[in-house]
Amino acid sequence: MTLDQLRIFVAVAERGHMTKAAELLGISQSAASAAIRSLEQQHGVQLFNRVGRNIELAQTGRRFLPEAKAVLERAAAAHDVLEHVSQTITGSLSIAASQTIASYWLPRRLASFHEAYPAVRLSVTIGNTRQVETNVLDGTADFGLVEGRTESDILRRAKVDVDRLMLVVAHSHPEIAEVSRGHPDIRELRWIIREGGSGTREVLEDLARREGISFADLRIFLVLPSNEAVRQAVEAGAGATIISELVVERAVAEGSLRSVPIDLPKRDFAVITHRDRQANLAQMALKAHLGAKAGETVRG
Question: Which PROSITE patterns match (predicted)?
Answer without folding.
Answer: HTH_LYSR (PS50931)
